[in-house]
């Protein structure tokens, strides 16, 4: 069997590796660097910056822990941004070469070029045609643009450009309080930028639990990040004021019926991402798609039975790990195998300080589906390890079914929404319990080591 995979991001390259392990011949086509957005200009480089911000914050609070790192506290709190950028490039390079080594496998042919689908089984790459039994499209997404006057001004930054910025701006306006906007707001606030976030919706992280969003907003505000929700950005223009390196932007927005404006040295546009569907030749094979993504069924199969689509390009969950498991599902379907992957239970994490994480349904979602539920909560301030770490800000909310007739066991864990120290790692336990259809009773019978952050789940 032979499969052509278009796009070598986490979805594409992991599917290629798994297919090759199963003895399937793979042609993997990539127009940029292997690793895709996640490795080259997304998850990984941002996490390098998050780590620098975390170290910096720890140094700033070192004296609270009885640690005198050096006599001049002024010196301690400085960031060498050139070194941060260098480390970011080194980490990305190290991981990318690791992926390249893995892909150097006898059954995988990696082609560098732009792929266009010619028909249900044929893909053209730079003038050469390749034929296969199946095609998997994993072309990802790109930053959405800001559809307001001045939204295309030169110098406005996307997340990719933000990662390449050569200095810490004195002030930063972030448009969009989604995952990307908040992660950069958190990092650059630590680095010393005066950060203002403008969010169109009434809460930050609109798709997250509203309680979590409210408390995380308070926590980020306490760190000095100004967050304005229900702010409808109306225009962006070049400002008269000279800020930082002599450049500024004026952002006009409507808030509570009044026109407001703010001036910042740089503006980050983080208003979502759009599936990359144009120029792929999907219409040549009768694949149904729209600007919102390629239509797929539960097996990631498109309207053309020999073509599958996985990851951001489907417009479903835009998360690297979702793409990987969607790829596995597509491959299993191609191989005629069933699997136990539940693609509806996908944990997600926001790498702000403190971190936020979520898995499963929110109370709002349960209500929308007519599922009776209740929430149990616990707080990091009552957790011994969190107190010792000096990181007590945060809470856990576990959503459980309430009574029979909900289609779930009474007390079955349906969702977990949390923020606090190491929330992104801690959410794994809740993911397991939800996948295993466990109840809150089951959770209370599981021993958690003391003193650990995981005891926060002893609700
Ligand atoms: P998003 O959809 O999460 O958030 C975009 C935000 O911008 C929303 O809150 C939206 O209401 C707001 N917005 C839209 N237009 C606006 C306007 N004109 N003015 C003000 N606000 C406006 O998108 P994102 O943060 O750009 O992230 C894109 C995708 O990438 C998401 O699906 C996200 O899950 C994924 N991602 C995940 C991670 C992670 O898992 N840690 C990190 C980065 C990105």
Automatic annotation (TrEMBL):
Residue ranges of domain Pyridine nucleotide-disulphide oxidoreductase dimerisation in the record: 346-457
Statement: the UniProt record of this protein carries the keyword Mitochondrion: no
Cofactor(s) needed by this chain: FAD
Chief place where the protein resides: cytoplasm
Pfam families linked: Pyr_redox_2, Pyr_redox_dim
Residues bound to FAD: 47, 139-141, 312, 318-321
Residues in FAD/NAD(P)-binding domain copies: 1-327
EC number: 1.8.1.4
Disulphide-bridged cysteine pairs: 38-43
Cofactor: binding details: Binds 1 FAD per subunit.
Active site: 450
Membrane-spanning intervals of the chain: none
Protein's cellular compartments: Cytoplasm
One annotated GO molecular function: dihydrolipoyl dehydrogenase (NADH) activity
EC primary class: oxidoreductase
Family matches, as InterPro entries: Class-I_Pyr_Nuc-Dis_Oxidored, FAD/NAD-bd_sf, FAD/NAD-binding_dom, FAD/NAD-linked_Rdtase_dimer_sf, Lipoamide_DH, Pyr_nuc-diS_OxRdtase, Pyr_nucl-diS_OxRdtase_dimer, Pyr_OxRdtase_I_AS
Catalytic activity: N(6)-[(R)-dihydrolipoyl]-L-lysyl-[protein] + NAD(+) = N(6)-[(R)-lipoyl]-L-lysyl-[protein] + NADH + H(+)
Annotated NCBIfam families: lipoamide_DH
Misc: The active site is a redox-active disulfide bond.
Protein name: Dihydrolipoyl dehydrogenase
Biological source species: Candidatus Cryptobacteroides faecigallinarum
């Amino acid at each position: 069997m032979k499969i052509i995979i278009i796009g070598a991001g986490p979805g594409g390259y992991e599917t290629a590796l798994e297919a090759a392990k199963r003895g399937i011949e793979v042609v993997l086509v990539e127009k940029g660097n292997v690793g895709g957005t996640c490795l080259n200009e997304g998850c990984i480089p941002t996490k390098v910056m998050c780590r620098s911000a975390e170290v910096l914050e720890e140094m700033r609070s070192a004296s609270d822990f009885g640690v005198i790192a050096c006599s001049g506290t002024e010196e301690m709190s400085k960031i060498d941004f050139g070194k941060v950028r260098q480390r970011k490039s080194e980490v990305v390079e190290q991981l990318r070469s690791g992926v390249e080594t893995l892909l150097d496998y006898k059954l995988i042919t990696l082609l560098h070029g732009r792929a266009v689908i010619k028909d249900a089984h044929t893909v053209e790459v730079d003038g050469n045609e390749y034929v296969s039994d199946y095609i998997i499209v994993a072309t990802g997404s790109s930053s959405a643009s800001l559809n307001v006057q001045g939204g295309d001004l030169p110098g406005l930054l996307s997340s990719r450009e933000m990662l390449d910025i050569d200095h810490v701006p004195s002030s930063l306006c972030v448009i969009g309080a989604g995952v990307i906007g908040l992660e950069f707001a958190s990092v650059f606030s630590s680095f010393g930028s005066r950060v203002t976030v403008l969010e169109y919706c009434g809460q930050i992280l609109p798709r997250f639990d509203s309680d979590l969003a409210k408390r995380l907003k308070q926590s980020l505000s306490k760190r000095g990040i100004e967050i304005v929700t229900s702010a409808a950005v109306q225009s962006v223009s070049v400002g008269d004021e000279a800020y930082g390196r002599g450049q500024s932007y004026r952002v006009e927005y409507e808030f509570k019926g009044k026109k407001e404006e703010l001036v910042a040295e740089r503006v980050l546009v983080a208003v979502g991402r759009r599936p990359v569907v144009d120029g792929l030749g999907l219409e040549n094979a009768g694949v149904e798609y729209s600007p919102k993504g390629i239509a797929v069924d539960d097996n990631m199969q498109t309207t053309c039975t020999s073509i599958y689509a996985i990851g951001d390009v489907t417009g479903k969950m835009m998360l690297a790990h979702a793409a990987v498991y969607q790829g596995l599902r597509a491959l299993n379907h191609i191989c005629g195998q069933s699997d136990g992957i539940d693609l509806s239970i996908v944990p997600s994490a926001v790498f702000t300080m403190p971190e936020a994480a979520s898995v499963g349904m929110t109370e709002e979602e349960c209500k929308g589906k007519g599922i009776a539920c209740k929430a149990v909560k616990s707080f990091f301030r009552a957790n011994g390890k969190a107190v010792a770490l000096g990181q007590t800000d945060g809470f856990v909310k576990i959503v459980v079914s309430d009574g029979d007739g909900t289609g779930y066991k009474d007390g079955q864990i349906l969702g977990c929404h949390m923020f606090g120290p190491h929330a992104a790692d801690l959410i794994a336990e809740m993911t397991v319990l939800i996948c295993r259809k466990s109840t809150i009773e089951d959770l209370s019978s599981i021993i958690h080591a003391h003193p650990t952050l995981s005891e926060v789940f002893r609700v």
